[in-house]
Amino acid sequence: MIAVLGSCALGDRADDAEALVEHFTESLDDQDVGGAASLTSYPNAASASIQQMFDGLHPQDVDYKLSQFITLDDESGFFSLDVAWDFGKERKWEYNVQGSVRKLAVGWRIQWDPSVVVPDLGHGRTVNFVRTDAPPPRVLNSAGEDLMTEQAINAVTLDPARMPDPVATTTAVSKAIESVAPLITSQTLMQELVVAQGQPITAVRLRDADFEILEPDLTPIPGVVVEKEQKLISADRRIVSPMLDAVRNVWQANRDATAGWAVQLLQPGQAPTQLAGFQGPAGPDVQTTLDANLQLAAEDAVVSVGTPAAIVALSPSSGGILAVAQNSYANDEGPIAFTDAYPAGSGIDTFKQAAALEQRVPVGEVKADDALDLAGRLGLGVDYSIPGLEEVTANNPQLGGSGKLAATPFGMAVVAASIARGGLAMPMITVGQPATTPTQMAPLRPDVIDRLRVLMREGVARPEAESLRQFPDVAGIPMSAGDDQWFIATKGDLAFAVFIKDADGADQAAKMASRLLRAMARPQA
After folding, report:
1. pLDDT at position 523 over 50
2. Is 0.85 topped by the overall pTM?
3. What is the CB-side half-sphere exposure of residue 168 using CA atoms within 13 A?
4. Less CB within 10 Å around the terminal CB: N or C of the chain?
5. Residue 185 near residue 167 (C-beta atoms within 8 A)
6. Measured between alpha carbons, how far is 74 from 385 in angstroms, rounded to an integer?
């Protein structure tokens, strides 16, 4: 079809001029830059302008339609085009443009002017589709104070192509940043460079205040490249939690939901001219459930051991996740508090005792599946959907067929919260956005819940929980699976789980819980 129309465009008849314009619109609709440009009087210039138009607007669909054609004489004509751009998500831009055709030595051609495709496009101007955002929402902790703010961050990257001696560079960088990032060593940087296979790596991201101090030592190092980027980070540098990544997801979803759009005409040295679109409205502030004082107390507690450890705390009444802390050994393995399931070990005995009461049989007659079912009704294995958060509570022993229960620290905290609540807790990280689940759980009888609460009160009397007896109204159960230690506990409207991998002693999880409660009692600066 293109070849036929192309030969028609070379003809001398007046109606060939209208066919040429129709061919031009079809080429534009197909985003055939070369084909459209070849039908103009200045193909090179037309190709550059049309290519920029499509690159700048990247539409989902475009429709150029001939709305009027007027023959002026044997060698010229006038036409109008109706244009509709579709950018998806009901974002549309419509307008009308005019142009002219002339008969040249090679036949009819569109008299090239960039304004024949977009109004006012000529004279060095370009056109772009952009997202528009209102000022970002605030991210608040449970007390209504700033938890996270968008700040300029200095990304310090290492480019192997610019470093003649990688060992010297990584050694100098690790020494320069030691005061703010002591865990980043020359060895860890060299390992990252090997994995990156010649590509640049990000050594560290620094807040402006830190970068201003370290810049004189960093920037002269061969291979160091610094780039500024905007990032949502903790307002208090002491607060470090895998929960913050989930909060970022909620914040970004907030921005995406309220984002506007614009088609802008740009000219060097001048402010953009908006041709279409609208400014996105301000989204609501993100009110999180994180308790800053409890988070700092949890961070203080998890660093007391030299193996991976995590603490997760919830409010039984609301389901709000109050604190999630991991030590550096855990961070090396990932967000284990939410994602890594570890054997519950002796914890299954607690579920067996409750199942025995529910079934009115001796504990010895409780089947493993019945105990696992009861654990599921307290939250282990429940398929939660929590806005912003990727999490699991446990493996699914029924599907896995192992008959053994492995839980995440988050899952065990949900169990403690469900016992305190008297029913399945529905966790959340942002106020007003509780978890949902397709799982239909039969509620436990009140006498079964009461039995679980008794077991938790009795758990504090065990020798390995001695460190917790100084705290009134604390109920908890120490659990173990080999060298791994658990402690789940409640105190008022607080439920939490402690996990320590390869713990040095049977009382370490309880001692970490004790340290958490002591830190909670201290005022945080």
Report:
1. yes
2. no
3. 8
4. C
5. no
6. 70
